Amino acid sequence: MLEQTYDFVRNYERQTINEQQEDKMAKKKRKRLLMRSSILGAFAIVLSYVFYTNFITGEETLVQEGETAPNFILENMSGEKVELEDYRGQGVFLNFWGTYCPPCEKEMPYMENLYSEYKEQGVEILAVNVGESGLVVDRFVDRHDLSFPILMDANKNVLDRYGINPLPSTFLIDENGEVVKVITGGMTEDRIRGYMEEIKPS
């Protein structure tokens, strides 16, 4: 009976030691996981900063005021081809944007508010999305209830042709196809209205 009691105590001690060791290992795993998550989070922040400073906050474009806007053909959200030259005779508010760009998202509702009013006066908005998938853009369009044409520059060919560094960038194109103004950065609704007034066909 005494020997059985000793065996029970030894087994209990071994079990307790094993549980303590397993608990220590679990704590170490949690600590390693937390450390890895922190490192990945810091890495993501650094990447975001580099992307923003190198791609979104520049101030130069290749196409300048007074030049003819380079023609391009892009597909809209329905897969239909849209050519810039087809809008000769109208003013074109050509906006380059991305869903990942906060100033772009902020100005989109302003553009939508003015779209119908100025479309009737001969001004068309062409909003060129840069390098994103149709699914991502479609969700963004639905969320903001946008009705103006969204064009997809998936390979960034038009972005490169216009030499765009900052987003958003907007080109005001008159009825003759000439770039009358280049705007970099976000815009208020009042500024957008003023710009659309500038490119209304005479």
Automatic annotation (TrEMBL):
Would you name any one GO CC term? cell envelope
Q: What would you give as a GO molecular function for this chain, any one? A: oxidoreductase activity
Parts of the chain that traverse the membrane: 33-52
Q: Is the keyword Transmembrane helix in the record?
A: yes
> Ranges for the Thioredoxin domain?
63-201
Q: Does the keyword Cytoplasm apply?
A: no
Among InterPro entries, the record links this protein to: AhpC/TSA, Thioredoxin-like_sf, Thioredoxin_CS, Thioredoxin_domain, Thioredoxin_ResA/DsbE_sf
Might you name a Gene Ontology BP term for this protein? cytochrome complex assembly
Q: What keywords are assigned to this protein?
A: Cytochrome c-type biogenesis, Disulfide bond, Membrane, Redox-active center, Signal-anchor, Transmembrane, Transmembrane helix
| Name of one Pfam family that matches | AhpC-TSA
Q: Where found?
A: Cell envelope
For this entry, the protein name equals Peroxiredoxin
**Taxonomy of the source species:** Bacteria, Bacillati, Bacillota, Bacilli, Bacillales
